[in-house]
Amino acid sequence: MKLFTLFVLITILWGCAQCSSNNPHPLDPPTRSEFKLIQTIVRRAYPSHSFTFQYVGLDEPDKTTILSWLSLTPQARIKNLPPRQFLVIARYQKQSLEIIVDLAAKSIIGTKVYEGHGYPMLTLDEQYLASELLLSYGAFKESVRKRGLNVSEVVCSTFSVGWFGEVKTPRSLKIKCYYTNGTANLYARPLEGISAVVDLDEMRIVDYTDRFIVAVPKAEGTEYRASKLKPPFGPKLNGIGVPQHAGPGFNVDGHTVSWANWAFHVGFDIRAGPIISLASVYDLEKQKYRQVLYRGFISELFVPYQDPTEDWYYQTYFDSGEYGFGQSASSLQPFTDCPANAVFLDAYYASADGSPVKIHNAFCIFERHSVDIMWRHTEIAIPNEVITEVRSDVSLVVRFVSTVGNYDYVIDWEFKPSGSIKLGVGLTGILEVKAGKYTNTDQIKEDIYGTLLADNTIGIYHDHFLTYYLDLDIDGEDNSFVKTNLETVRVKDHTTPRKSYWAVVSETAKTEADARIKFGVKPADLLVVNPNRKTKPGNKIGYRLIPNSVVHPLLVNDDYPQVRAAFTNYNVWVTPYNKSEKWAAGSCVDRSRGDDTLGVWSLRDREIENKDIVLWYTLGFHHVPSQEDFPVMPTLSGGFELRPTNFFENNPVLKVKSPKPVHWPNCTSQS
Amino acid sequence: MKLFTLFVLITILWGCAQCSSNNPHPLDPPTRSEFKLIQTIVRRAYPSHSFTFQYVGLDEPDKTTILSWLSLTPQARIKNLPPRQFLVIARYQKQSLEIIVDLAAKSIIGTKVYEGHGYPMLTLDEQYLASELLLSYGAFKESVRKRGLNVSEVVCSTFSVGWFGEVKTPRSLKIKCYYTNGTANLYARPLEGISAVVDLDEMRIVDYTDRFIVAVPKAEGTEYRASKLKPPFGPKLNGIGVPQHAGPGFNVDGHTVSWANWAFHVGFDIRAGPIISLASVYDLEKQKYRQVLYRGFISELFVPYQDPTEDWYYQTYFDSGEYGFGQSASSLQPFTDCPANAVFLDAYYASADGSPVKIHNAFCIFERHSVDIMWRHTEIAIPNEVITEVRSDVSLVVRFVSTVGNYDYVIDWEFKPSGSIKLGVGLTGILEVKAGKYTNTDQIKEDIYGTLLADNTIGIYHDHFLTYYLDLDIDGEDNSFVKTNLETVRVKDHTTPRKSYWAVVSETAKTEADARIKFGVKPADLLVVNPNRKTKPGNKIGYRLIPNSVVHPLLVNDDYPQVRAAFTNYNVWVTPYNKSEKWAAGSCVDRSRGDDTLGVWSLRDREIENKDIVLWYTLGFHHVPSQEDFPVMPTLSGGFELRPTNFFENNPVLKVKSPKPVHWPNCTSQS
């Protein structure tokens, strides 16, 4: 602990803005030059053009290695950076290879053929190639002609096919096409009735059918580009400036961020997207930084659509494991995605041929002046005196946006001076719609599995489940998971005029089975505590999970998509830390069969008391589309809070002073 | 509808900042001069000094009167303001009187003796008088002396006593006292073991016992005033300016606020606090304002503590009906409670003698630049083109803070350009604690009904339930309540490779019994719709309730406090509009017996389909205190959203332009 503290303090004092090369951290994602070196090393062994890089990421050092590195002096740390090793998952000769590359040794130090079910993440390149195939496919061109459309205005997109009990599961994608004439909103104009399957290893169409024709919904009313929309515009919103005479209040040093009482590392992975590591909070009373979160990221996103018909049943996406939540990052726009006081970070990933690709402005980091109240009290009970003490809240946000095809996910990690971490999710972007013959609900006599949004346009029902991996290390690695159940006590002995009250019955989970929680069944506070450390009054030091919605999957447990997404069956799971258990849906998710999920690992029912444990939390949304979601949807928000609970001896922001108002008296404004 | 639209448009065009007298509205709360006139009229009839004004508020005109007034021209409206009538609830000769005063007639037009159970709201004056009684009471002075304390540093406070099955329920309050030596945080230093009861009508102590002595917890560590705290301070937060070269983007005209696409009226009531009326949203496509909410306010707050012992069992407060959520308003502090760009409104209420009391800065109204994203999409599927369209969110907030003794409630009504209304609740302030002999949890062998927060200091478990009255009038008065249940369909006929999907089964509530909802049992979208109006595709026009927590009472249904708070037994109730059904806990709540609650009215099981209906929504918090909540608690937030759902034909913010960044190039800054 102490050495960890030392590390963070030194890191903070060690200022050097955004120059990761001068201040490397063992959890840093691969740099541009590292990607090149990995490419060179691997290409040397596999010169064939048919060899593709499906995933390249940090093979993160063991936790013990990281912790002992952190215990070194800064000088020693530079010299003793743990070996930079990377995991390359590749497709080669119809096999999935797991290759470990060591950069110091400049060589491959391990190669394994993946023998399990499922395939690695899809590359953007192969998806692009697959989506282009149809455009020069004779039967498709005929289908387009038959519909009276122009093939030059057709755009196709690729869709993972899932697994529905098939014995053989070739690596393939389905293709759906859209019409772009008159709009940039291609998702609004699907060519319904056509299905096509591409074999990815052979990169050719293996199945094509054109079963029926439905008119493509009209372009009118689908546009969302301001430059193409016609007046009237509105409602009018006016802007504010965000002047900070002293500049931003946070420091970004390589990938390490420090602000107010927080310090943490921001990583990036092509599959996970943002990874927050080593988050620790400064305790003013103890005068040291204290560990909270060793590593946290979104392990999987499961998005099942609810239309069981031919062209839709398979749409049960795993946005991380199949598409890469990091690979799908959108470059953030200054002043709209992020405020004027934001700082941006780029990210890199490897394309199919192994070359580094830069994502400009993949992250932004900013202080949020949300105009919330941190704490307050007005006291009028004391004679001749009115006391009013108010502290306004400021927080630090790390924002990332991933656009997986039609949907945009806004992911916020928000750090609060009170010690809370708020995890925010915003859903926006464009609905997947189905073309139909209907223009009015009056005409509908069957189940259309969605909402009629406009003429011939059905927004299909679906869910979003986000599963967070949260390796909380509360004041050290050995932690326990405690349910503090709130239970009604009925008074029977007439010792009080009350007939009832509620009591807190704490229960420490011994094994994984004790820690599977479905919200809404029983009121409980859920805590990760350090049973080896107590506060002065003797309370267990901990952090509490505060959900803000209760959503459970509605598919039956034995349905194929749900078997693959069994990790969503509970809102909360706790597992003992295991370096290999990172991906809730398993390592190879495309066409997976659900035999390598969190749901399966947890069946071992391992001991989790006073161990290094990982909390898995799933939040969800059932989405019944409404007309307001068309042609682009206003953000729907969700999230949860990790809140210190008897972690501090008392209110950690008691001695915060509200920021002074900033006045700009002599300004020539300009909007 | 059209006439309503006209009204709002005219109101907006009718600018006159904060001059309610020039632009009176029939829903305006009583003005200072109206209070004086009411006082004069009533005092003329009841000159006795023993006559007290317990409540004075607007006796709001009938809905039909309001709606027909709104249909007049502006000129005609000034001349035809409905009669200004007010309800005075008074105590006189040990009776509760309900007096209707008409200001035009300058007379009392109706008087009724309240014959039911319970008493009217407590006045601040009588609470103050009651709390002072003990300080000159011999036995109490002896009790203080016995504890080695100084009576000049004791402050007492009053607590409603509830009802626990007693046949006789005199109007009385319990008194608890605190020690202020060395701290302003009196709640942290209770004098445990002493109980006193004051008869309010006789204003004298009728019961006094000193049963045991527990040392008063120490003052150290309880202070929260910045001026009294010792360094180190921190963490340091830096401020921002909020320059708006064009000033705030909203207009306050009397009590009517207009901003972006919203217009509404902000009222105030000594019992309810803030009341939002006639909220309507401008539909860019239809080019008119459309009705959303006729009237919304917090009808009751129920705060039961969970310690059944002698001095605590009765602590089951009704913060509106007993204490007055409006009466408890705190004056808002510029720059901390509200941002630099806020506009403030004062409020008035009548004190016990009928004279107006001003609450300075009772409301603030401000544009919130929360740095959220209103909607966005990045499109990479179109060849040779990357589209990124992002709109940043801005909303308008009406904020009000009520400090009921120790607790501070931050109440936000937030209006979003997307048509959503977000209702926010922040809990902060000071915990009620009990003095105990313990300094460490190791010593505790019994149930202490709370958390040991510091030496001898127990934070007692409790709940907060807030019940909102929401008279939604979606595009007109006649509305229905629709549950769109999400139901799993198991596929049995092998028509699809899927084994299941979920379907939406809509159910329109016929009577009140159909509309009692306990969250967490069944997934459903809950809507208030206008069954008489449909969108172009034929969907019912509506607004959806999106909760963000699931909390239910844990007291047994037949426990006395829960009988009085039966309105919290469901998260949602729907009743037909009835002018007299405003207060979920009944009209006279102090010592009430639960025979006049929403729970009882709803037993009539009236028809609610295609009627003018009211939605009642209860959100709650179970509060297991933690050390972080001491000596003052960081805000714990909750809330819910009312979101348009097939109310608009499409995304109502599609044509919003993000505010332009405001630059301040030539500034001399000053912090």
From TrEMBL, chains A, B:
The modification 2',4',5'-topaquinone is found at residue 407. Topaquinone (TPQ) is generated by copper-dependent autoxidation of a specific tyrosyl residue. The lineage of its organism: Eukaryota, Viridiplantae, Streptophyta, Embryophyta, Tracheophyta. Pfam families: Cu_amine_oxid, Cu_amine_oxidN2, Cu_amine_oxidN3. Belongs to the copper/topaquinone oxidase family. SUPFAM superfamilies: Amine oxidase catalytic domain (SSF49998), Amine oxidase N-terminal region (SSF54416). Keywords: Copper, Disulfide bond, Glycoprotein, Metal-binding, Oxidoreductase, Signal, TPQ. Residues 1-19 form the signal peptide. Contains 1 topaquinone per subunit. PROSITE patterns: COPPER_AMINE_OXID_1, COPPER_AMINE_OXID_2. Its cofactor is Cu cation; Mn(2+). GO terms for biological process: amine metabolic process. The keyword Signal applies. Its EC number is 1.4.3.-. Residues 242-654 form the Copper amine oxidase catalytic domain. The active site is at 319 (proton acceptor), 407 (schiff-base intermediate with substrate). This is Amine oxidase. GO terms for molecular function: copper ion binding; primary methylamine oxidase activity; quinone binding. Residues 120-213 form the Copper amine oxidase N3-terminal domain.
